[in-house]
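Self-study notes.
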Amino acid sequence: MSQDITYVGLDVHKDSIWGAALPPGSDACQDEQTLPCDFARLRKWLRRLQRKWGDLRICYEASGAGYVLYRYLTERGFACEVVAPSLIPKKPGDRRKTDRRDARKLAVLYRAGALTMVRVMEQEDEAVRALVRCRRGLRKDVHRARQQVLKHVRRNGEVYRETANHWTKRHWIWLKALELPLVHEQFVLLTLLEKLEYLESKLEEVDESFGKEAFEGRSADRASRLMCLRGLAVTSAMGLGSEIWDGRRFPGAKEFMDWVGLTPSEHSSGGTTRRGGITKAGNSHCRHLLIQAAWVNVKRKPRVSVRQRAQWRGQPAWVVALSQRAMKRLHSRYWYLVSRGKLPQVAITAVARELAGFVWAIMQDEEPGSSKSAA
């Protein structure tokens, strides 16, 4: 029973951990401790609390500390949970924030049942997500490095005109043969080119691991199902799959739409209803991928491409049926909204929200609403 449980809140930082324990029958924390970020010393303190008060329930905020502490404690028999920071209740008039007060607040709210917990990823899924994010970051770095080279060359009056496309083999030969009049300008050009070549070589290495994971790793089944939807190729399917990683953690499609921030904001009170733009809460990268995929669905008529037909082979019948339904539904929905006077940006956001519902359905192990999934 909750009356026999001691609730412990931990405020975790890279150099320190502040803990506060709320024992049974007490309205205030009675044992508080500040420790260096040393898991062994934290474990000794928690064992002492166990000997003193018995059963413990431990929580800390999801942050840059990751899930390492959670895994460390659970492997040693402690009951630990990770709290969603953005959903912690806050008093509007409270202007004081310290590590001690944060730890106390976590313990008190934990006992009151006012905290929302996050579902912790398995280490393998977290590694896949790190790989996908690394690739995304490298692609941005390569794009930025290319722009730096082009701008530096143009500032010196040099423009590539042999072909219409940049970064072809001929363009690279032209860049490496280029000689700028000033020594420092030439040095900067060579430095930028070396940096770009290094980034592109690292991107090729990451792409190799990315491809193996997408088609042969633990993400292969998840990615192949998402690729059945029009507008989701390998990169976007892996991006969505690695961020969602388990669609079953969302009770329904509405909760998933909330998580990607595609639901309208609302401020209604006293009989007055006021709705605004989308909340933009949650995972911004998933929201971006869904909006980009929505544009693909509305620009062309809902026809099955050769690539999509090949992707459907070997997939469950209900996944193929959902993909066909999504293709027709999203296209007709967009043009219906536009015909009613909605701006294209507003209409595409509504289409992306509906696409999120289809993504949630496909991420389930069984067809939503079937007897097996309901059980």
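Second protein, same conventions, sequence then structure:
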Amino acid sequence: MPENIIRIRLSIRTQDVKKEFEEIIAVSEDCQLQRSGDPNRPDLLIIEVGADPEKEFGVIESLLTSDAVGEVFLTSENTDPSVLMKAMRFGAKEFFTQPLKAQEITQALERLKARKKTSNRPETGKDGQIIDVIGSKGGVGATTVAVNLAVSIARNKSAESVALVDMNMLFGDIPIFLALKPTYHWGEITKDISRLDATFLMNILLKHSSGIHVLPSPSHLNGTQAVTPEIMEHLLDLMRGMFDFVVIDGGQSLNETSLRILEISDKVLLVSLLSLPYLSNTNKLLTSFNKFSYLPKDRVKIVINRYLKKSQVSLGDAEEALNKKVFWTIPNDFKTTMAAINQGKALTQFAEKSAVAKNLKELAATLI
């Protein structure tokens, strides 16, 4: 069988639903439905979730862990958001509510083809690290940390190539921080995910004077398709093979896409301040991560920004409240940091000898 053919197996109880899937697959290019008794490993298993989703999710996890199937799509009459969240946690790539919508299924199959195409690409020799920088609340300086961390990593001799991705999906500030004038942004990728390969991506990325490659977010409402978890997984898989480090400005929002990024990332820097409202929100995020088992506890690193030694809330207080050690502190130098932002320069370019610039260089070296 040609390598580009997608083998699909159905495990659907409801006959009308099964028939709909069969009809959609029959007219989908490069897709082939596996019949009963076919011993070949399916690239895709589509399962209907019934009355006992927990049991079925356990089966799905076992199939994926043992590599008995390539990917799993789910369908169900149950539209409870908690079912969808659990489905994602156990490894399902797509979830179709009933009654089915043919266009949604067709688009999902196209995304699967794109992922398979990416996984079959020639090896680039790189196996890059992904670092997701997220804020506990707005205003903690997550973008400042992400931008300056990416530039600092790029200046380290151990990193040959670094990319910076703006996941503030609308009105992101990275171009302002680096005085860039984007020609392209996220919308170019979401228009046609099947086009996404290394050549296409490099044409979209902006090259900054520091050497980093930047993928901006849209600067205005433009009607482009939203970035989905599948698009993000496809993109990061591709970028991991192209760059030594991929730094993501993850913003503050938590949705399906940002949760998928957390799962994919090698390290997650959760930025907070030594202030009770910020620490409270940080604690809520940590609790959420642990509750839903999105990622191991040691993958999340607490970073305290604008740190003052004589703060009313001490590091010890913060660690006790969070039940977790603080990984890094970045000194408070608001004047220098804001001046660098206003001039569109990274701190290492604007004030290389400042304490905050040196601190971020040390953070980059530690992460490398």
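Instructor comment on the second fold: The longest strand covers residues 300-307.
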